[in-house]
Design goal:
Blueprint (H helix, E strand, L loop, with lengths): L1 H19 L8 E6 L10 H4 L17 H16 L4 E6 L9 E3 L5 E3 L4 H4 L1
Parallel strand pairs: 1-2
Antiparallel strand pairs: 3-4
């Protein structure tokens, strides 16, 4: 509902300005880097402070559950339903960092729960 209300509000502003300027130009809405995110592991700067890392620490990788699937599905359905105004909505990251696909160095790749709303 909040995303739908946001789209409705911004669309109203766009339409108002279009009418005020007597423009024929259509302006559409885009969502850049949207996703669900929270830290299941509360890592902060103290977790990496003073450590000589050979490569970047895994600070933003997270495991998702069914609740996250529902949270992904709501705005995704809204973007589809309001495709008259929203022309593009890009997921923030695709692999590893707050992402639907995870990998291990030298190991497998696997799909997290939030992968499936995009797939279907």
């Amino acid at each position: 509902v909040p995303v739908d209300r946001y789209i409705q509000t911004i669309s109203g502003v766009i339409d108002y300005v279009k009418a005020k300027r007597r423009s024929k130009h259509n302006v559409y809405i885009s969502f850049d880097e949207w996703n669900v995110w929270y830290h299941t592991r509360k890592k902060g700067i103290s977790d990496v402070d003073g450590v000589n890392w050979a490569k970047a620490a895994s600070l933003m990788e997270d495991a998702y559950n069914f609740e996250d699937v529902l949270l992904i599905g709501c705005p995704l359905n809204t973007f589809i339903r309001r495709s008259d105004r929203v022309r593009i909505a890009c997921i923030a990251q695709l692999v590893n960092v707050i992402a639907p696909i995870m990998t291990q160095t030298g190991g497998p790749a696997w799909k997290q729960t939030i992968f499936y709303p995009y797939y279907y």
